[in-house]
Fold these 2 entries.
Entry 1:
Amino acid sequence: MREQVVMVGDDLPLVGVLCEPDLDKHSAQNTAVILLNSGVIHRVGSCRLSVTLARNLSDRAGLATFRFDFSGIGDSEARRGTLTAAQAAVEEVQEVMDYLSQWKQYDRFILYGLCSGAFASYRTALADQRVIGTVQLDGYCYMTWKSYLLHYAPRILSPSRWIRFLLRNLGFSKQKKGAEVSGIEERYFEVPDFAGYPPRQEVKQGLRKLNDRGLNMLYVFFGNEHYKYQKQFEDCFNPVAFGDNLKVIHHPYATHILSEPEDRKAVVESISDWVLSLIEDKQQLTDNERQTGYRVCVCTSNENPN
Amino acid sequence: MEAFYFGPSESYLLGVFHPRQSTNRNEAVVLCNPFGQEYLRAHKSMRRLAINLSHLGYSVLRFDYRGTGDSAGDLTGVTADHWADDVEHAIQEAMDMAAVPKVALIGLRLGALLAAKAATNNKQVSRLVLWDPITDGSSYLGDIKSSVDQAQKQGSRSRILEPDGTIHFNGFSMPPPFQETIASLQLDNLTPSVPAPIAQIVSHEAEAFTNLTRQLSERPDFYYELAPAPHDWNYVDHVGGILWPKPVIDAIEAYFDQRAF
């Protein structure tokens, strides 16, 4: 495995680290994994997850990876413009893909992200056909009747929850949000400025489009208030028939920032296994196409002997 | 700004160099990070401090210790001595890149303790700035262990793994060799062997800081400033919020602006 720091772009470059497997360990010369920021944490990722994952993907799956900072995050200088952060993220991932294509001849990409990084990988996949797979940790998903039931049933039966609910509604206590939760003055505490979730129908249409295109999707959900059971994602976006394009993993006891070492280990291993299997499938498909193409050629030659 | 890898090939270090943007002060600065979650939450502050100091005429090098950030490996087998060696590699790198004869060290929290260790008997170090320093490695570990105990009582699965004693705290692991070597470091013992001037710039008052100030006040070159600012570096929320204690960053910048060496 070899790592090198890369600056993408001449003016206000995006700073990243390219991690490549040893030459004899490459499993796919034309494919790279791009790891995106989550929130305002710089490219090493929450609890250094992106570094661990990038190196694991290089060592275990034989793939090149590129982890970088979006403009205005980590070591990348902010860029001026009229785009929203969400739009700029898609453009910047495409800029990175263009750069890696020109420099290293990668033409297929798998995008990885946690939370806002997952949202950016979804949006980029919609905008760019070079994306063959996404790995989304706590990506877009919405409540279903079953998840509402699983969420609210224990609360309805809990006296302490009722007391807190009443106190809030009577104005005796306040539900804290964002920087307020920390107790630290807002001007001294930077939290991600997440754009609101898009409407469910919009995401459903997007997923249908991606699914029809054959995009491979790995979704990993952790123990949060909004994801309650293994099949929630499929129920949520029913009737999209994902079939083999989708794999969902649910770690109900893991935290959103993956603070527990065994959770990180399990997630890193399952991502590496999934990516490796995706690469092997694509390779198999390419081999089959090559064989089929050869037969067609022979057949054509036989059927049309001038 | 230039980002690159430097140091020995088996323990390569990520460095980010900010070249001076104004009159040459003939002194570079190396920033020494804190540990674990504190490092993630301090990244923006360290970067901003580096940029501001570069505008004052100081070339600045930020870097990740081995086993952290984008640098090589993990903390398996790593000790505080290795991290002090990394600080020394960073000092040499900063001197080479900035073409200056001396380097100031600024350390935050555990980074201050390590910077002090690297500064002992080191004539290349022009001054040592202790920002909210960990004054005693042993007490620091004790605090972490009590936080883990407290978190467990509140339902966290964080724990001290048996049998080897590795601590998992706030998403970062601290293996026993690292703990043992950190525990042996105390500013009380280190600072008398630091030949360079020392500044203590803190965001809040604490008994450990007062004791340190009392000890360091005997030095003719000692500088102290209290710049009240948030300092809960280990507060971790669910969205990865970042601490931004501007008043103390401004105070360090002002110290470098007014006092050239």
Entry 2:
Amino acid sequence: MGIPIKLTMRVGRTVLLMLCAALGTILLVRFAPGFFSDPREMDAKYAEAARVELQEEKIQQQSVIVISMRELGGWLRGDFGQSRQYHVPVSELIMGRIAVSSSLFINGIVRGWLLAFCAALPMSGLRRGKTMLGLPFTLLLAVPAAAMATACILADAGGAVLVLTLIVAARDFKFLQSLFGSAWNSPHLLQGRAQGLSVRVLFIAHILPNITPQLLALTTLSIVSALSALVPIEVVFTVHGVGQLAWSAVINRDLPVLVAISLLMAFVVGVAELLSMRAYTLEAA
Amino acid sequence: MRKWPSVILLLILILGAVLEVRVSRHDYAYQDREATMQQASPDHLAGTDELGRDRLVRVAAALLIGLTGAMAAAAITITIAATVGLLAAFSPSPIAAILMFVSDSFLTVPWLFLLMTARSLLPLTASPLQTAVATFLVLALFGWPACARAICGGATTMRSAESMIQGRACGLRNRQLIRVHVLPHLRPLLLPQFLVCVPAFLVAEANLGALGLGVGEPMPSWGAMLLELDNSALLAQSHWVYLPIAMLVLVLVLLESFTSEAERNA
């Protein structure tokens, strides 16, 4: 199978994934208790006839197909609907927060990777003491994101970026350590080391090219775990980003916002996955 | 052999928690309004919370509820994962592709967001027990894809083993092959997967609870007790507020070390 066909299939898969994420969210929210509750029904200023009309309108909108078609039609026109809690267009609401979350997200991932990389590389070459030296990362792995964020606030040290950095580093360290560990012990590297090649040459010429596809796959995993951690971190630090918006949308059953955020998350993960798979494809070619 | 200290320490903690819950004069939900935010005393060994509830009993109960829930959820997850993984490994390729696409779809969506969405859709009037069951059930229903992938990989490798080819040549059906040959050989893979799920579910429950979407009050849970840390006024009054998070980290570190050892042995 040629690269263009493979790439087309991957793009199709990403689009399908986004549609599945959106449909899943619609289904979940549609069947949530209280989804169709409307504060206008309890407002005395509406006459009985108006309330009956509101109820009839709701009955017409109950079908998942109707809701899905309406949402899909809206997206095709670039309209993501209006937020039920903020009463502003969803696109406007999300666009304002994307920059905040992106900055936090990119900073956290880059620093987390650097930390994990710098710690895993020298540790992977050790014969003894790996467990003890890796203990801080095991400890970090054991602390829930929300607790870590709260601890930072209490200690008045660090911030959202530090917490995200530590979470990403803790998750990636274990994988990177085992990846480097198995690379160091491969026969051709042992021979290279025996011949006196420097660590820098071995790493650049032998290790890095061999583990690049795995590193790219790990990037996708990092993105998924960072996106998950974004919600509690933004909520605890009161960062006005997409994660906090997702949390408030969940609490308030704000379907248009929830669906838009699901789409956004599926898109980010889909593109990251696409890039890592593209790297695999090109490598294979 | 390195796993034994963590297993023994974990068992001591569990035993201590059972004793504390059974022997203590205080119920985890009992509120002594005359003794709110008390320091440690012979009556309350770790003090009381802002509602006058014995903190040690609540931490002990949270440990037991958390571990029981996480282990039950992990068992459900492994059952679903084994079913999906084996189905994918022994089905025609289109069915396998669909199953793996579904599992990939679950994997790619950030699961805390997924959990948050699913958990928030439960009735607002649910009892604490119902919220606890629902929380861990949601965790179980969304935790299977990674395990399913691993099991599918293991089963696919095994499918082309000589013993399997011989079994098929002897006329054994896939169901018989799975029951007699595949499942017993997959046990070394299933156990570490189960052990990996337990701490992951504990952390997920704590994160959900900290967002107000976990186990409902007055039932004690790690997540709900972490919410206390948000109140700086409480922190100034008693250092025992840190007990739940310290205990949670200890339990998770013990579980992690046990899990790493099991993974290494697998």
